[in-house]
Amino acid sequence: MSRHRYVRNIDVDEELEEDILSDGGDDLSPEDYELLMDRVDLVRATLGSEDQSGISDHEVKDTLLYYNYAVEQSVNWLLEEQARKNAAKERKAAKEREKAAKLAQSKATSPKIARPSAPKAAKKTAPSKSGSGTATPTRAVDQRQLDISALNLTAKEDAPVEEEPPKPTIALEKLLEEVRKEMDTQERSEKRSLSLVVIGHVDAGKSTLMGRLLYELGRVEEKKRMANERGSSKIGKSSFSWAWELDGTTEERERGITMDIALQSLSTPHREITILDAPGHKDFIPNMISGASQADSALLVVDSATGEFEAGFERGGQTREHLLLVRSLGVSQVIVAVNKLDQVQWEKSRYEEICSTLKPFLVQSGFQSSKTRFVPIGAMAGVNLSSRDSPESGALKQWYKGPTLVDLLDTLEPPSRDIMAPLRFPISNVFKEQGAGIGVAGRVCGGVVQVGERLRILPGDGTAVVKSISNDDHSLPWAADGSNVILYLTSVDPVHLSIGSVMCRPDNLIPLATAFTARIITFDIDIPVIAGASVELYHHSRDVPASISKLVSTLDRATGAVVKKNPRVLAKTTSAEVQITLRNTSMSGPSAQAPIIPLESFSNNKDMGRILIRRSGETIGAGVVLSLLS
Amino acid sequence: MKLVNKYVDKNGAGHVTLRPEDDEDMWHLYNLIQEGDSVRAPAIRRVQNVSATGSTESHRVRLNLTLAVTRVTWAPSTSASAGDLAQAAESSSTPQNSTAALHVTGRVTSENPHVKMGAFHTLDLEVNRDVRIEKADGWDSIALGRVQESCVPGRGAEVGAVVCGEGTAIFCLLSEHMTVILQRLEVPIPRKIATGSSAHEKGLSRFYSTLYSSFLRHIPYANPSLRAIVIASPGWVRDGVYDYIMSEASRTGNKALLGARNKFLKVHVNSPHVHSLVEVLQSPEIVSQLKETKFAREGIMLDKFHKMLGTDEMRAWYGPEHVILAADRGAVGTLLISDELFRSNDAALRKKFVSLVESVRERGGEVVIFSSMHESGQQLNQLSGVAAILTYPLDVEIVEAEEREAKEEEERKAAEENGKGQ
């Protein structure tokens, strides 16, 4: 009897959803249609043709649209649905038989209410039988609900779903459309956005350069500059006045050193650039990694003063390590700013010496020479940043005729964005802001996030609703792959939010892993890597203790062919496939739970599949995740 | 630990009676008692009697039980202990309380008026209660060595260590054989945001104050047996932490803490994780202070092994099979072996490692048995638990090939003999 009631409820829902679907599902752009047809063929390859499988093309398409073109899921669903239809068919037949039998016996004792429900249920459960109905996965959920309700289970779990009806999923289609349009216009208008990480050896002048650049481009008010100047000379560090714009905390200012990433944005004639000013000191490389993993391109600052460049570039210097790190994190474009040339009297020979030392190393590290540019600058005096008009640049003007730093920044090529990928948002900062609630900063690594969505926070069971999205004080309705934004969240328990967690849509979660296989390249290391070596694993803003639990094979660096299986050690600059297991950090035995981190294989999501391995303050390797083990 | 009684004949049969005194003794007992041994210790058992009329009465009886051990479980002390320690140290120099739990489960093997033979019992071993251990397979050199080691009076120093990062702190207490993690502290500190907000500073000061209160609770700074208090961190967190602790101590007039000022050591490490403790133990400040302690030696040895691996790969071997091969050739100069291997329930496996240790010692090699309760031991466990620094270089592949040949030779001989026999 209760079943009867449920059937009626669902009837209404179904009709509503069907309306919405027909609104949203049919207007496809030509590219989408092509993609769709492509995927339909793939699905057909598994299922067989229409006659063999009994599944119509229409159904396949609907399913694919629902699952966002994921072939595997669609196939699974279609097969399930097929099984269900067959079952329903049989059920109906059985009921029909039963009814006939009952009629024949003409016993009127059977309850009258039950009878009408039987054919009705049959009608509902097998709507596609008539051939005209198009089964959609949305309905499948209802079907399942129906089945569950028949088991007399309370449907309490569904309550939160009720709050936000399937709106986001359907709206997603429209949103993607919108995002794509926006990106097209952005491309046409040639004001494209990208993010840039500023790297280099400690005291190369990264923060000073950025402070000066922001000032030159009118991002720093005169008043603030004066305040910084006064403040810094007060504590006897007037040379740090430009850096104070980015080094905001008291400790950084006192020590005159950047300790954490500073986020700023600037705009050149054709680019909107998000600047991530990284710390150069080697103790803060974790912070630098966190910044570099959010960047598309890099600006390397080198100190040209006598002895300083050499100190930064020799082994153990950060010029070398930072370059390797950003390359391993997927950054392929780099601008090299040769700084402090005023200290060597703007000698052309010094500039050329530095360029010729760096060039081979850049190529060797995997930067294409066409994507590396050099520029001589004097950050403190603002020489050759946006122009060479100031009196200090007279000496440089005599021999340098090339582009300025801003000209180079203006020609950086933004990478392609993947908005169709499932949403991943690794958190790099969590903070409370008065009036705005809890904010999380980070970079969208795949997909699109929009205001009003409920997202899952992994690891853990937390969820959060996006209240607003902000980017450099502008409020946005959505943010797509590659943008560095702050999400302000509501209805979230702050305990779930920690730096390093990943936010994603509840219907497409990022997998969690404690062990995985990876392909790594070891850097220039003294102590070889052996099975069981304790290392620290860096993944976005998170670092965890781990161990290289197994050396699977060493590979040829060029071809990737297996050179040796089960090697005993990995020497320097070796390419290898290894197993990495996160370490149980307590010594109290098996009771302590193993740590778990969100991770994806490189083939699924490039951003989420890159790892770095460090040991005792030295980066020993970088790699990509091949597959998750557990 | 006190050795109350020892009767072991030349074949290794016999028993040893020990009186544990602190947590570390419990760890020794855990390493001594194995499956199959018989252990006699005081126990409290609820005995139920049914009278002729069917009424039951139950009472708790204190008695000595002898068990044939089937299982030993160990849990290191919890954070509560150190606070007690600090208090105890302040009031009087009473011996430390033990909070480590060691449970021995097995069947009762000796007759007594209350408990049937063969009944199961779990002994909760306590400090200051005598335990008699009789080894099933006899006392080997490793077990006897451990008894001896554990009974050395006034043994090594204790070190309190706080490994901090920005917003994280791990409180540890290191003793000769154990590293106990007392607490992990995590205070979310918002990272700096471009708009110079004060959130970062606020978070930092909250972190310092929580750290200070945990420090008072966990680190027995006034205890004279505590040799050093290490504050380790990357960056400059350790300076901030040290300054905060000292300023709070003088603000609140904590004389004991101010008096311990010279025990503080600030050490630079590269990561805020527990495994940085290895780096702590290798730092020159610590080495000069604690050279003779076991845990410092373990750290140095492991470092030596790694360095050898870097300089001459053929002289650094690891993994049980390989190390045994090297020992057969008399090449092992220093053997690094984890105590976990001796806890193995497989008697044959244990015997294999015991004979490995004995053969290395016979040839004049040095043997360092790592405690798996230390970070260095944990890292050795990751490397299969056994490693060796060889006196002369040997190529693993050549040795393996030799072994294979020898084996084939043997097989061929055996086959020939079989052929002759037929």
UniProtKB/TrEMBL annotation, chain A:
Q: Which SUPFAM superfamilies match?
A: EF-Tu/eEF-1alpha/eIF2-gamma C-terminal domain, P-loop containing nucleoside triphosphate hydrolases, Translation proteins
GO MF term (any one): GTPase activity
What is one process in the GO biological process aspect for this record? regulation of translation
By its UniProt entry, which Pfam families does this protein fall under? Answer: GTP-eEF1A_C, GTP_EFTU, HBS1_N
- Record keywords, A-Z: Cytoplasm, GTP-binding, Hydrolase, Nucleotide-binding, Protein biosynthesis, Translation regulation
- Composition bias of kind Low complexity appears in 110-132
What Gene Ontology terms describe where this protein resides (cellular component)? cytosol; Dom34-Hbs1 complex
Q: What is its main location?
A: cytoplasm
Locate the Tr-type G domain: which residues? 191-417
Superkingdom of source: Eukaryota
Task: Please state where this protein is localized.
Answer: Cytoplasm
- Regions of compositional bias (Basic and acidic residues) in chain numbering: 89-101
The chemistry this enzyme catalyses reads: GTP + H2O = GDP + phosphate + H(+)
Locate the region Disordered. 89-145
The UniProt similarity line reads: Belongs to the TRAFAC class translation factor GTPase superfamily. Classic translation factor GTPase family. EF-Tu/EF-1A subfamily.
- Subunit structure and binding partners: Component of the Dom34-Hbs1 complex, also named Pelota-HBS1L complex, composed of dom34 and hbs1.
- For this entry, the protein name equals Elongation factor 1 alpha-like protein
What is the species of this protein?
Answer: Wolfiporia cocos (strain MD-104)
Print the organism lineage.
Eukaryota, Fungi, Dikarya, Basidiomycota, Agaricomycotina
TrEMBL record, chain B:
Which residue ranges have biased composition labelled Basic and acidic residues? 404-422
- Recall the GO molecular function terms of this protein's record: metal ion binding
Q: Where found in the cell?
A: Cytoplasm
Record keywords: Cell cycle, Cell division, Cytoplasm, Meiosis, Metal-binding, Mitosis
Q: Which organism is it from?
A: Wolfiporia cocos (strain MD-104) (Brown rot fungus)
Top-level lineage group: Eukaryota
| InterPro entries on file | eFR1_2_sf, eRF1_2, eRF1_3, eRF1_Pelota-like_N, Pelota/DOM34_N, Pelota_N, Ribosomal_eL30-like_sf, TF_pelota
Q: What's a GO cellular component annotated to this UniProt protein?
A: Dom34-Hbs1 complex
Q: Name one GO biological process term.
A: cell division
Q: What is this protein called?
A: Pelota
For the region Disordered, give the residue spans: 403-422
Q: Which Pfam families match?
A: eRF1_2 (PF03464), eRF1_3 (PF03465), Pelota_N (PF26356)
Cofactor(s), by name: a divalent metal cation
Q: What is its main location?
A: cytoplasm
Coiled-coil ranges from the UniProt annotation? none
Residue ranges occupied by any eRF1/Pelota-like N-terminal domain in the UniProt entry? 1-152
Which protein family is named in the record? Answer: Belongs to the eukaryotic release factor 1 family. Pelota subfamily.
